[in-house]
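Dock zinc ion; give full complex structure.
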Amino acid sequence: MDWEIVIGMEVHVQPKTRSKMFCGCSIAGLNEPPNSHVCEICLGMPGVLPVPNKAAVEACITCIKTALALNCEIPQHTKFDRKNYMYPDLPKGYQISQYDLPMSVNGYLEVGAGKVRIRRVHLEVDTGKLVHAGDKLHKAWESYVDLNRAGVPLMEIVSEPDLRSADEARDYAMELRSLLRTIGASEADMEKGQLRAEPNISIRRVGSSELGVKTELKNINSFRALHRAILYEVDRQQQALESGGEVVQETRGWSETEQRTFSQRSKEFAEDYRYFPEPDIPPLQLDRAWIEELRRALPELPSVRRARLLDQLPPAQVAVIGADRDLSDVYETAVAKGAPTLATANWIVNEIAPTGKLMSGQYLAELIDLLQQGAVTRDQAREVHLESVETGRTPAEIVAEHGYSQVSDPSELRVLAEAVIDANPKAAADYRGGKKQAMQALMADLRKRAPQANPKVANELLLKLLA
Ligand SMILES: [Zn+2]
């Protein structure tokens, strides 16, 4: 393979606000009826004017905080512009966005061992959305427009074309999500459309410094789809170029059902949009001292926290815990309460991360302690965990109520171990014959007969009896 992949990313993020930016409409939830959160302003009726409200100010602050967390420069002056184009999801015929004086420029995000440069982070308002329905067989199509999203603030985070693979692009998007959640900028839930990734992709011969013709993939809404769509697109471009064809600069969509990209429209260029300053919204002058205040108030960023966790834990655990603010918080609280680092980390990685059943750090410290004392088996600890999350009661209370306790008395367990060996003559013979893995079958049977048996003591007894 003598092609080099070049990817830049535009990521759209919906900042946490209660209302739209220039009108009083609240933000619609995922399954609310279409056009239930609209008014004459966000519908773009003739004669209406946008009014910057509290949400608009909050969105600006969130945008600047995000830019600071991404190491961007914040210019002293910034303004909004009109981006003019016709599309059925844009009743006004223009989108309020930022053109030549964005809220921030020239930052970077640390991803893995490298840095991805950030060109700009700016603020704009979202458009509506088209919903297509119809009958493929009879070619009877209908399109609907839902304007619940029109006027919702949206941050656009644009990277330089520094990514070189689908893996890097996915890691970048995940790191960005982790950062956005850490600073409280957005829930950044891709399923709810709060974070949408738009990679632009080109390939070039290795050694070439010229950029190839790029295609842009629109509105990708999961990390998995992002990864697959890029792999597909790279392969498609490579086949086109190797067979003597060409890549056309265009916008393409991703079909989840067909697992392929498809052409949507030929790419517009900036001059097509006839940008001009938005006359209804005053330009902003940003106070340096206030910006520095925002910078100082930023919480610890994921990359810094990860570096600190790496002093305590192996990289595999840090990869999981350090990627999620909630998990890191639980870990650090539990450890601060005296819980051992590795046992706590392993419980989080194996039991909390896959299930999403988050418990407080204090309760987790208590649970790990019960486990390490041998007061509960691992299976019982799992049940206690789930019940504690559901009821909010402490692990100790739940253990006391259920009368959970581990049987560690060797004389009691010896009878059990003998019964297991009698009932599994083949496994016992296999073990004695040198097949060490036969022990697993014996232990499994033992656990089935007595879930409360202390596995360590039971295992030692089985070994002794078999010897
Ligand atoms: Zn409205």
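Observed: The mean pLDDT is 91.
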